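Regression test case RT-17, inverse folding.

Input:
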């Protein structure tokens, strides 16, 4: 009877030990699973952060960048147009023959413009807002230069020009315009009383807006020279 009791006690003790081991394993937390979850979350956070930075970079890259090269080119073209060389050859007709001479850049002391002047002529101020370009050997041959102010009424300007010529002769005629590009949008008028010959041109072009009045003697040969110089007028 005693051996059976000992066997029973041994089996019971073994069962108790087995039960305690199972409970301990159930209560012990699965640290490996927690570590895996933590690493996954950290990796996801890093991925989200990287994607956010990439998206920001892409957004900045998509922003339009102002092309300064075009602005620089336009500025350079404007500067090129405003810079004038010191001399320029001009061809003109006088006494039935063509001449070519070097004209020199001359800036008005009276108004904001410049032009190329042939050696036989000289530019001077006559009165405020009026200059005179005259033939040195005989100042009865001259050209008056006036810049047209902004806002000047064209009809009134034309009316005053015709009235000016009527003081020379009542027979005021429209004249053929010179071939130079500067006179493409011009209007020309002339009057001749058999002794004095006066012509006037109202000129609008990309370089300047001006009026010229050419005074000479009937039959004199200075008209073309004056017109060739006038074609080079450029406002500052």
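Golden output:
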């Amino acid at each position: 009877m005693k051996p059976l009791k000992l066997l029973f006690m041994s089996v019971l003790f073994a069962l108790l030990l087995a039960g305690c081991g199972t409970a301990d394993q159930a209560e012990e937390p699965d640290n490996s699973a927690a570590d895996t979850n933590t690493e996954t979350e950290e990796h996801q956070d890093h991925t989200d952060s990287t994607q956010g930075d990439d998206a920001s970079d892409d957004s900045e890259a998509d922003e339009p960048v102002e092309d300064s090269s075009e602005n620089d080119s336009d500025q350079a073209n404007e500067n090129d147009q405003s810079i004038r060389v010191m001399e320029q050859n001009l061809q003109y007709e006088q006494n039935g023959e063509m001449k070519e001479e070097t004209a020199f850049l001359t800036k008005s002391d009276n108004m904001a413009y410049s032009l190329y002047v042939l050696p036989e002529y000289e530019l001077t101020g006559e009165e405020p807002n009026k200059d005179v370009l005259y033939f040195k050997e005989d100042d009865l041959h001259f050209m008056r230069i006036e810049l047209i102010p902004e806002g000047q009424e064209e009809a009134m300007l034309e009316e005053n020009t015709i009235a000016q010529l009527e003081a020379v002769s009542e027979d005021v005629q429209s004249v053929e315009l010179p071939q130079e590009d500067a006179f493409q949008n011009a209007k020309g008028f002339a009057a001749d009383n058999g002794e004095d010959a006066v012509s006037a041109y109202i000129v609008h072009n990309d370089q300047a807006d001006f009026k010229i009045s050419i005074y000479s003697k009937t039959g004199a040969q200075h008209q073309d020279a004056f017109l060739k110089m006038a074609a080079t007028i450029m406002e500052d």
